[in-house]
Structures are given as C-alpha cells and as structure tokens.
Amino acid sequence: MRRRLIFLLALIALPLASAAAELHRHTIATDGGAIEYLDWGSGPSIVMIASLGRGAEDFGEIASGLADRGFRVIAPQPRGIGQSTSSSNPMTLHDYAADVAAVIEQTGTGPAVVLGHAYGNTVARTLAADRPDLVSGVILVAASGRSPLDKEVRMAIAKASDLSVPAAQRLHSLEVAYFAKGNDAKVWLDGWYPDLQKRQWKAFNTSKPDEYIAAGGRVPILDIQGEEDAVIPGKYSQDLRHELGERVSVVVIPHAGHALIPEQPTAVINAITDWLRLLQRSSRP
Q1: Are 228 and 181 in contact (CB under 8 A)?
Q2: How many whole angstroms separate alpha carbon 192 and alpha carbon 58?
Q3: Are 44 and 13 in contact (CB under 8 A)?
Q4: What is the mean pLDDT of the chain?
C-alpha cells in the first residue's frame, strides 16, 4: 500500500517534456526466453499490454503523448513478436501475465499502473490478481467482460486478421468489428500476428473469468470504452462498475469502436491523465 501511495503522490510534480519522447527497445532474459519491451519517456510508469494478435507498436501515439505529459510507458512484446521468444508450450493468461511481471521487476518500475487494450485487459487483470505487489492500478481499454460476443462480430474478428483474405474483405471486417463508422480502419490492415492470435485465443478459452475479472479485488480500475464498440455494446457499459463497485471509473469516448486507441488517441490520453491525477488528489495525506 505504501509503494502504491508513493506512485500516486509522484503525480503531483509531473514534469513537462520539452521534446517528443524517443522510443527505446530493450530485451530482458526470463526462464522462458527473451522478452522485448518498448520504452518511452520517464516518470511514473504505465505498462501497456496489446490487443489480440497485435504488438506493442500499437501504443506508439498514446505512449508518446503520455511521455510528453511526464509518464514513462513500457509495452512488452508478446511472445513470438520482435525479439520476444516464442514458446513451444501452450500459454495461459497467467503465463502472459508472468512475462509482463518479469519486465516490471527487471526494470524496477513496480508497482505500476497496468493498461490492457481489448484482449490485453484479461492479461492486465490476471497480473493484478497474481502479483498485486507489482500493480497500483488497472486501466481497461475496450475491455471485454462477461457479455456474449455477437456471431457476426466474431466472424469479422477472425477474418480481419486472416492474411489470406483479400484486403478489401479484411477492411470491411475491420469496419464491422473494430472501428466506428467513418473512422479509418486501414490503419489496422497491417500489424497482425495470426499465430499469436491463435495462441491467445487458446489461453483465453482455457481460463475462467472469475480468475481475473476483479483484477485482484483491491486496485482502482479505469474502464475506457468506445461509444460505438461492436464487441461490447453500450448496454453493457456499466456492468463492471455494477459488479465491482466504486473502485471502477467508467469513461465512454464518442465516435470510437473496439479499436479505440487509433481512433481517438487524444481522448484516450486525456482519460488516462485525468484519472491518474484524480487518484493523486484522493491519495493525498
């Protein structure tokens, strides 16, 4: 608790960056092989976990923006991407969470706020449950909960990342599943890792929501949602708050779908910084 308070109080004196934050790439060694992570800025740490079948580069714009506001952003690459060693064994959500934990431990940045984008939210919450000593808060961006997944949307998710499907069809699937009407879905035609996606689905399907849904039951949670999210329709927007209570803060961003971050990066940055500063004010002695 004391270390979490120190992190939140550090927000009082956030520095203003004088230039755009540079991206640095590093690799750590773990018992399961190497894990690469991307690193921007300095200050209180936010650790980001990418969406289904996608890599840490997705966070570039918001990571740079948050670094300019005085935060350090660390984004581990899932196994099989970049310099992160692919595992020959089936992975569980606990395994993916352990990789993130290793990065936090070896960079000395814990306890950190951990952000999970879409699928990454399950890993973020699992990490908070498994290693509460390393997590001071959890940010969910376009997070799935207990809501059922529409069949058409599920098919669109599969087709959008299938590189054997013609680009025009994949683009349509991206528009159906991930992007709000009128937003440019072409930005997600690239950046897919189908083998990773299959492994992540297996990890998800062999897990039980009760293992991770409460994120350990203690830390504050920011639930950032897209108003036009086809994966988690608006009628479910308050479900997590109803289930977990007042430690959940909900922010709904207009004109955004399930991709959310590439659709409304500035709004996401603002939601994160506003919430962290609110926590800082509420944590003052």
Answers
A1: yes
A2: 10
A3: no
A4: 91
| 3-class SS of residue 174 | helix
Q: At what angle do helices 151-160 and 167-177 cross, to 10 degrees?
A: 140
Q: What is the pLDDT of residues 125-166, one digit of tens each?
A: 999 999 999 999 999 999 976 777 889 999 999 999 999 999
Q: Which fold has domain 2-282?
A: Rossmann fold (3.40.50)
For the stretch 44-70, pLDDT in tens is: 999 999 999 999 999 999 999 999 999
Cβ atoms 236, 140 nearer than 8 A: no
Contact 279, 8 (CB under 8 A): yes
- Ordered by start, the domain boundaries in the chain are 2-282
By the 8 A CB rule, do 125 and 116 touch?
yes
| Burial (CB count <10 Å: 0-12, 13-18, 19+), residue 167 | exposed
User: Residue 220, preceding bond cis, omega within 30 degrees?
Assistant: no
Strand ranges, E, within the chain: 23-30, 33-40, 45-49, 72-76, 112-117, 135-141, 221-226, 248-253
**Alpha helical stretches, state H, 108-166:** 120-130, 151-160
Farthest CA pair distance, the chain: 58
The answer to whether 79 touches 203, Cβ cutoff 8 Å, is no
pTM of the predicted protein model? 0.91
Tell me the C-alpha distance between 26 and 184, whole Å. Answer: 31
* 268/62 Cα distance (integer angstroms): 7
Lookup: tokens for 262: 């590439």
- Judged on CB neighbours under 10 Å (0-12, 13-18, 19+), 162 is middle
